[in-house]
Amino acid sequence: LLEHCRKHKYLAAPGEVFALLVSSLLENLLDYRTIMHDESKENRMSCTVNVLNFYKEKKREDIYIRYLYKLRDLHTDCENFTEAAYTLLLHAELLQWSERPCAPHLLQRDSYYVYSQLELKEKLYQEIIAFFDRGKMWEKAIQLSKELADMYENKIFDYEGLGNLLKKRATFYENIMKAMRPQPEYFAVGYYGQGFPSFLRGKDPSPPKFWIP
């Protein structure tokens, strides 16, 4: 297809863009289909990140969000609760604290029946804070709880919700002072050689955009 487009008088430029786009999409989707049978959940996470990054770059929020939740599920299955929280936060960042109706493609959650972006973002924040708590990332949970508390106090006037949130925040501060936490270590890993799957091979070992163990 690329060869034929390049020979065409009018389709040379747009045809090349289309052929390269389809080629990239098929490469990602075929890798994803293959790796879903792999026992390594870490490989499945990496491949899922590649697919959702493709859809994010192409501004297909509906499919991007769908793969965000596939990644979230992989993290929760591995009890990577901090990583699951950061994954959900990417969905929340697409929403505004607004009464504007929430477009159907932004939902992607059968359990959430909401009308506005504010309602959905609130529910996501509650879930994200709970994940950060389970992952012992209480500093990040406090940061998000402050943002949510401001909404409760100054915009939607949910004082009961505010009170419950402040109680949780007090617990987070106490945990920071008293609970034992292992010191995390992070490594940049590169995969070079034909023995690695194509979605990993030769990738830049810079810090990832998504939290993957």
Automatic annotation (TrEMBL):
GO terms for cellular component: cytoplasm; plasma membrane. The keyword Repeat does not apply. Transmembrane segments: none annotated. PROSITE patterns: DOCKER. Coiled coil: none annotated. GO terms for biological process: cell migration; myoblast fusion; small GTPase-mediated signal transduction. The keyword Transcription regulation does not apply. InterPro entries: DOCK, DOCK_C_lobe_A, DOCKER_dom, DOCKER_Lobe_A. Residues 55-213 form the DOCKER domain. Keywords: Guanine-nucleotide releasing factor. GO terms for molecular function: guanyl-nucleotide exchange factor activity; small GTPase binding. Belongs to the DOCK family. This is DOCKER domain-containing protein.
